[in-house]
Every structure is written in structure tokens, then in C-alpha cells.
Amino acid sequence: MYTSLLNVKQAINIEQKLIDYLGTYIDHELERLDDVKANPLVAFTLIKRLHSEWLNVVYSDEALENTQLRSGYEEEEADLPKVEDLQGAAKGLMRLQDVYALHVGGLVRGRFQRVADGKPTDIYLPTVSVPLSGDDCFLVGKVAYEQEDYYHSVQWLEESVRLFRGTGSKWIPENEGTLQDALDHLAFSHFKTGNVSNALSLSQELLHYPLNGRVLQNVAKYEKLLVSSPPKSLSSNGPRRPTSNYLRTRDTYERLCQTQGSQPVHFENPRLVCDYFTNGHPGLLLLPARREVLSLQPYVVLYHNFITDGEAEEIKGLAQPALRRSVVASGEKQATAEYRISKAWLKGSAQSTVGKLDQKISMLTGLNVKHPHGEYLQVVNYGIAGHYEPHFDHASSPVFRLKTGNRVATFMIYLSSVEAGGSTAFIHANFSVTKAAIFWWNLRRNGQGDEDTLHAGCPVLIGDKWANKWIHEYGQEFQHRCSLNPEE
Ligand SMILES: O=C(O)CCC(=O)C(=O)O
Ligand SMILES: [Fe+2]
């Protein structure tokens, strides 16, 4: 190599190549990191580590003399996830389990699987599977247990007991629970769901632990119960899912989240057009919108190329600091009601990207979107299994109407495409959408709310959902005219 300069040049080329390989490797690793961040199982275990595992380690006897660790931890403490975050993450996992009919055993192995005809199928294959520990499952089970939701607690605690048994009686400092705790909670959950014989056998196992009067009493109670009312043969199908207040629409909602519903069949109805749309506006002449009319009643339109990746990134960047603030500032009640979602409002000047988007919405819809006729751009970010229950965007009662009237239409933009889950489901119209930008009228021409617009945001399974939307209100008298037909 040292005999000629040419050889040295070659060596430099080789090194350059190696550096390029390294660069590619790092890029791939960064992508992998992105994948990992967007995985709810990773997010859950991370929150759990930060909320309780580190705490248990830092304050364990083993770490007593490590004052540096303790003071370092105390410095960060204020920024660590709170118990509500951990509970919210656990509830998020159970929501994903329900809405996407996921198999708990699969989730525990880091997989997202649905069981159909006894066979598990992956509905999403993560690049990295993050398995859960017995203690992770114990925590989810306990959150369910504390809400008296024994349907979920049985399933998660079964997994917890199985995993704790697998690790033997080894004591792990970061754990919150033990095999004994899991058995105890599982026994009671079984009892509450009417499975007395399982409750009894688990309680009998608990008798091997340092004696506990309550367990002894339970064993006697369960034995008596089994004699007085022996279990009926396998007639019941096990515990039912807890009912919720939107049960009426729940089945449809979940089906739409899983399947996208019955997508529009354009060739069957000539009014469901796909076209290059300018709305007769000179501003759209050179770059028309790729419009797809999805539904006529309610009237829902999809614009395929509404926002560029660069614009979306800019909007997310603008919203990020405001989003954080809005979470801290939200009152306790609201934080729990809309848990897993944070919001920010962006004003933006006419020249800004926000202003340009405003202008584009106005050109496409022909509506006056200037504040206060349109609300500021709202950016929403969804957390673990973040979702939005079925609702209307318009106010159903005049009491809640703003000065500029009701929300006549919605323009919703997806700032990043979600990898799995997270679609917007139109409950009555029977379809769901996950991409680009959609527009729909909330009010009928007679000013009344259009009940057919009932819609929901499905929980995000994988990915980072940034939906944002423009809501237009009255002030559109000449653009969205009333009809002479009061029924319209
Ligand atoms: O996230 C979604 O898909 C729906 C959000 C929504 O409906 C709303 O913010 O009003
Ligand atoms: Fe909505």
C-alpha cells in the first residue's frame, strides 16, 4: 500500500465505502428505534420502568449506599411518568385487546394477533417483539382488578401467574408484584366471575405461603359454595366484557376499526366520483386536488394529496411545544376524560404554512375559514391506544354553540399515516378512513345536525397519529346556502 500513491487513494475509497456502510447501518438502527417507539408494548414497559421499576431499584436495600444514584433519580423525579400514566397505558393495552380482538397470550409474547377458528394470525408484525414479564402482566391485571373488571383481570393475571411460575421464586428487586400477589388477585377474580373451583384451587396453592387468615377463610368459603351450588357443566362461556355506555354502537365501531367497513364502490354509483378537482379556482389549476367522493349521505370527501410531507413535519414541529403545555395545563377532570390525546391550537400568519393550508382548504371547499368563521388549526396527538369515542363535531344543544354558530363542516388532515389501527370510523355510514385529508358537512342545509356524521377515532395500534382538522362555522351564508326544502 505504501509503495504508490494510487494505492493510498484506493485505501481511502475503501474507507469511504466502509463509512457509507456504517451510515446505512446507523440509518437502519434509527428506523428500528422509530418502530420501537411507536409500539404500545414498548411504550407500556418503558412507562412502567420509569414509574416503578427504577423506584424499586433506587430504594432497594442493595442500593442503599449508592447515594449518587438516589440523588440523580430525585433530580429527574418530577419528569417521570405518574401513576395515571401507567394506569392509562395499561388501560390502553386492554383497549387494543378489545377493539382489535387481540389475543392476550400473543400480546405477552410481543405479537399482535387475532385468534380466528383457533388459529392466531398476525394483524401486524412488529420489527422487534417486546415480550412482557409476569410483573408487567400483573400490573395490567391489577389495573383491571381495581376497576372491578374481572373479565380482563382473569386473562392478564393468568398470564402473570404462568410467567411468575416460570421464573421460579427468584426475587427481582424491580418487580411490584410476586407470584403470591398474582395468585391472590387471580383467585378472587375467578370467584367474582363465578369460577369457584379455580378460585379454590388457587387459594389452596396460596396456603403454601406464610399463613394468611384471609386465605384460610376463603378456602372454607369456596369449599362450602362448591357443595351448596355445584358448578353447572360448561354452559357459560366465561366472563363477559364489561359493558360501556356506548355499547349500542360499540360493535359497529370495532368492526370498522378492524376492517374499514364497506368501502365505496365507485362504479356502482356514478355520483361517487374520483377526479382532479379545482373547484373552478385558479389557485388549483396547476395542481388540482385528487378528490374521491366517499359517501353522499353523509357527504364525505377524501383529498389524496392535500399536504406535503414537508408541510406536515413543519406543522408537527410547531405543535410539539404547545402540545406539552396543554397536557400540563389541563384540569384534572379533562385529563382523565380525554386521556391519551393531547391538543394544540395553531394560529399562524397568512404567509405561514398554517396560512397556506387555510387558503387551500378555502379554495377546495369555497368556505370562509378565517377566524372566527373557522377555528384555528387544531393539532391532535394520540398516545398509547389513543382514541376518540363516537361523537358529533357539531353541538347538539344551542347552549354550546359559539358566537359564530355551530360547526357546519369538518376538514381533517392526517399529518402522518398510522401503521396499524387509528382510522376514523363513520359509524352509521359504515366505512372508515386512515389517510390524507377528509371533509364532511356536519349540518344539513336546514341547519340541523346530520346524525349520520356520527364518527370516532379508532385506537392507534402502531404508529404516531397526528390528526388535525379545521372546523368551519357559520359565516358561510353565501357559500353553503339553505335549501327551500326544510327536510334537506
Ligand atoms: O381521530 C380521529 O380519527 C377523529 C378525531 C375527531 O373526530 C375529532 O377530533 O373530532
Ligand atoms: Fe370528530
UniProtKB/TrEMBL annotation:
The keyword Endoplasmic reticulum applies. It catalyses: L-prolyl-[collagen] + 2-oxoglutarate + O2 = trans-4-hydroxy-L-prolyl-[collagen] + succinate + CO2. Its cofactor is Fe(2+); L-ascorbate. SMART domains: P4Hc (SM00702). Residues 229-249 are annotated as: Disordered. It is found in: Endoplasmic reticulum lumen. The keyword Electron transport does not apply. Keywords: Dioxygenase, Endoplasmic reticulum, Glycoprotein, Iron, Metal-binding, Oxidoreductase, Signal, TPR repeat, Vitamin C. Residues 373-473 form the Fe2OG dioxygenase domain. It comes from the Eukaryota. One of its GO terms (molecular function) is procollagen-proline 4-dioxygenase activity. InterPro entries: Oxoglu/Fe-dep_dioxygenase_dom, P4H_N, P4HA-like, Pro_4_hyd_alph, Pro_4_hyd_alph_FE2OG_OXY, TPR-like_helical_dom_sf, TPR_P4H. Its main location: endoplasmic reticulum. Its EC number is 1.14.11.2. One of its GO terms (cellular component) is endoplasmic reticulum lumen. PANTHER family: PROLYL 4-HYDROXYLASE ALPHA SUBUNIT, PROLYL 4-HYDROXYLASE SUBUNIT ALPHA-3. Catalyzes the post-translational formation of 4-hydroxyproline in -Xaa-Pro-Gly- sequences in collagens and other proteins. Heterotetramer of two alpha-3 chains and two beta chains (the beta chain is the multi-functional PDI). Belongs to the P4HA family. This is Prolyl 4-hydroxylase subunit alpha-3.
